[in-house]
Amino acid sequence: MPKPVNEQVVVVLGASSGIGRATALALAEQGAAVVCAARGTEALQALVAEITGRGQRALAVTADITDPASLDALVAAAEGAYGRIDTWVNDAAVSVYGTIEQTPLADFRRVMEVNFLGHVAATKAALPALRRAGGGVLIGIASVEGVRSLPLHAPYTASKFALRSFYDALRMELAADGSPVAVTTVLPASIATPFWEHSRNLTGVMTKPPPPVYAPELVAAAIVHAARSPRREVAVGGAALGFVLGQRFSPALTDVVLSLVGRRLQTTDRPDDGTDILDAPAPGPGQVHGDHATRMIRRSPFTAVAERFVRPGEVLLALRARRARFAAR
Q1: Which residue in 82, 97, 156, 214 is the catalytic one?
Q2: Full set of structural domains in the chain with CATH
């Protein structure tokens, strides 16, 4: 079983804004020592100043999820400061909006490099550290777009499908090896972060999250819960259920519906401002909420049930891992 959160050292990759920033704040509030990592040094320093100003523990480490040497340095900094790593959160992501035809191949490659291969590299850096600590939790932030595709968002959606499959494969391999490391995949619905302002936009107009839109603090709370009580997969926001059910029971009908309303649900009538974080971090101190925070939903009974419901398969997988550990002794 993982340690109580207030005894943990947690690394959060992608901590400079949005879900990652909300997660770092929530973990620190619960008493964890938080190692905040991202490309944006200024945003990380502001975050750590906010945390330590409250008498909580945090360390800023500038790191790029696509650079293995940077990730090794992150592990060394975390272990050097706090002695170990108990939980590792992979949250870094970038996005491009546009049709497949108008999106350059280089943009597809960049999204996959960060959102998929970056998570692979970070996981490979994290696993030895989690084993050195005697076990722990690896938490990967995917998306409900890893369950159901959306138009205008093919690079991001494809990366999240790949990411969800990656964490599934990892979970099975670790169980077969008897590893004391648990893997949780988090699938947020539309979240009121700066994600849309940070996305590269080829549509000509500002994009928006398909409603309903949920507070990033809901995702952060689900991550904190997974750090102490890991689940196989946790969807955040009741709207995620619609994605799952639509894809499972009538994917063709869902294709029709999204071909009719998908563009309207994701675009505004405002011109795009031309800024993005695809190749470089956003300047400034960073923020949790984006432009769509005025109508966000702050509670999700669906998520509260989903993160606490233990599926029979999860119990059997944990028993499989335990049996493999005993057999290896």
Answers
A1: 156
A2: 5-328 (3.40.50.720)
